[in-house]
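Support request, please re-run this one:
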Amino acid sequence: MSGHVLIIDAMSNRRIRMQAVLDTACYKLSFAETQLDGLSQIKSDVPDVVIIAHDLPGLKLVKFCQLLRDAPALQFISVVVAVPRENQSARLAALSAGAADVIEHSVDKSELQARIRNYVRTLQASQEIRQRTGPTQDLGFSEDQVAFASAYKIAIVRDSNLEGAADKSTEDTQWAGVNITHVSHDAARRGLPETCDVIVLYETKNPAESRDTLGTLRTQAVSRHASILYVTSETNEFDRSPLDLGAQDQVSSSVTTQEIQLRIKRLANRKRIEDSARAEISILGEKAYKDAMTGLHNRRYAMEYLGKQDRLRAEHPSAWAILMVDIDHFKRVNDTHGHAAGDEILVQLATALKSHLRDGDMIARYGGEEFLVVLTNIGANEARSVADRLRKKVASQPMQFENGTHVWTTVSIGLAHANRSNALGSKDMISAADAALYRAKSAGRNNLWVAAPGDYIAYRHTAGAAK
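Re-run finished. Output below.
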């Protein structure tokens, strides 16, 4: 995973140490001694991460973070503030100012590299969602602090024998009304009782057990999308960071109550943004496979659906049918009543067809005035009955418009059927149904025509080989 890190620090010895820590990770490193020089470099060559010293002369951190947030090209940068060891007030001030994270100047090499990997992953996730959904809120931590909604659900996972471990997460009165659940590590590995926004996972005396809990939570459906804050013990030296195992944030248990709560709130807000993005992507995906006018599936969906059905029937053969349904004299309707009337007929016809199919059947708008229907697990006679019922239903009721106009419409249908033994694929079935539809329309329209053996490509090849 590549990444560009800019280090802004007036003290050369600290810059050199950071360089030594990060050099082996193959990151692109840039350096600046002042805030002004750092901003100049950011604008000319945008980094992924900015590590800035808390005691940088003239630093106005709130303004610095706001400046990056307000620039579309810079808002994904993770701003990390380096502070002296155990300076709790400096840590809290940096996070409150809008920094993504805080580290100590003497940060461990493996911890810093794990944190940077986490920042870069967050950046990549934000950019991927932006590409798929358009402009949205940043998924990173650098953001204005917002109210902590009472609807948030928090799960505290801790060793049941570790007294007071959860106090930092719940003792503040600002948490009144927030749904907080306390769960042991053993119970968490069996599965949380309900979905939640944030899981605060306290490390036990056995770090391997804690990491096992983390990995298990990431595989369970109920907790897969939750944001996880991993709270390490003060003395633990781990060989692999929780951030590399699925946690979104990591902090030592030695930090203040206010910092843990601030991190939880930010993770909860981030989780809601991610939920919103997932929902938007789902909607966009649905739109990509739906015909905007009729609300039916579109041709793209139908072809992918048929491909999946081909693979499924190869493993589990079953009888099925395809109907090609075409509106008769549709051009005449458009020419006589206008295209708006033609659109309304498409909508009403789609509704009528769909309402007379079983839940397991599939219908899609296949072309301009053509619909494709897939009937699953159905015999030949039953398929013919369904098709003829659809045809008669359309012919028996006129399409009615808001202005009181009635238009009588009919459809022609071509039917192709495959039993369990002949293993006909969807391309062959569509070809046969098309041929049957052509005959139905040639026979005078408002007809149902069943495909003949010669309409199936597979049968034609078999017949040709026999000759």
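The two ends are 62 Å apart (CA to CA). The longest strand covers residues 320-327.
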